[in-house]
Amino acid sequence: MTSLKLKNYKHKLTGEITVPGDKSISHRSVMFGSVAHGETIVSNFLPGDDCLSTISCFRKLGVSIHEENDGLRIIGKGFEGLTEPNEILDVGNSGTTIRLLMGILAGRPFFSSIIGDHSIGKRPMTRVTEPLSSMGARIDGRKNAMYTPISIRGGKLNAIEYQLPVASAQVKSAIILAGLQAEGETVILQPAQTRDHTERMIRQFGGEIVTEDRFIKVKGGQKLKAATIHVPGDISSAAFFLAAGATVPESSIVLKNVGLNPTRTGMIEVMKQMGAELEIREYENGSFEPAGDIYIKSSVLKGTIIEGDMIPALIDEIPIIALMAAQADGPTVIRNAEELKVKETNRIDTVVHELQKLGAAIEATDDGMIIHGKSKLRGGTVSSHGDHRIGMMLAIASLLCEGEVILEQPEAISVSYPNFFTHLNQLLSQ
Ligand code: S3P
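A: This is the predicted complex of the input protein with shikimate-3-phosphate.
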């Protein structure tokens, strides 16, 4: 196990960075490029470990994917061009890969087996295996197809009408991907709006999908055409520097080309609510995914309440929001966020436990956490627990700690932000 010494107490952040490509959109560009017909070109692809797992799985399914310049060239041959893999498909740490992949494999008339790492082995898959089985796929796995290893024998699918039991873009997307291969029209009802990258990408690949309020309708048998995809920067990666810019005294930074899809910008809304001094300059280039530059300065923050339909738009940002709340005046309450328990780690436990070690006044609740306002942070030894977002949150926390911070398992960060420390050092260098 590796560890990293961090000590930059209250060293201001200045200058600008361009955060790397969006993880969710990068995954989908590989998947849609693979099942469309023709040559798809992807630029600003995120070369993080999770997205590399997606590439590796689709190569094993017979797709030619070339890594070129800062992107990919994918030779798609349609859903029907995928072939039975000789090897086990390994998704590593990636929940998006396994869940969306199952949606694609559900309609393919061959056998595959899927594994992942220790964390994936603890994450619930029934939320996907159940609806896909009801569409006609034969799926098995440990504990009644709840956990990996999972095996799928796909084939002819029928459309379903399905009410999602959880607000999950991964589950929604798996059903949409199966629905594209099914006979008839699949209708999905979401309990709250979740990230809509799959829906946007289907249209980009020449497909049709109807979205009305929380209903989604997609017809089976559509032929998707290759596309050119420019991946915007990941707002979930930008989040760490947004929080650092707002909380470290005398900071002033610019984050360039950040994805601004409104289903992902919950953290910006929360920061405004907390009093953060930030400015957004959105690009007017008509891209299928909006993007822009964000200017952020150190700010006086106040506590807030985060709950209900806001949660899916900032679910991945809650670890770093918790740190920001530990630098704000007054309490912050986060509720209705029980989904945090089934992320790469149980993020209610890991956030609360690790921030308590640094001296934050924070407590866990059944469905979220309460942060009791500004606390003096000291140093200490903390761990990412193998969770990239916990690792980055703790690295940012070290900027606010009086003592030295030792971060264990920092390598997890490469899952979504391989050059995180390069960017951090760049912003600290002036
Ligand atoms: C993702 C959806 C979210 C998010 C994950 C990526 C996606 O998960 O937490 O990091 O790319 O669809 P859920 O949809 O399961 O909430």
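The radius of gyration is 21 Å. The chain has a mean pLDDT of 97.
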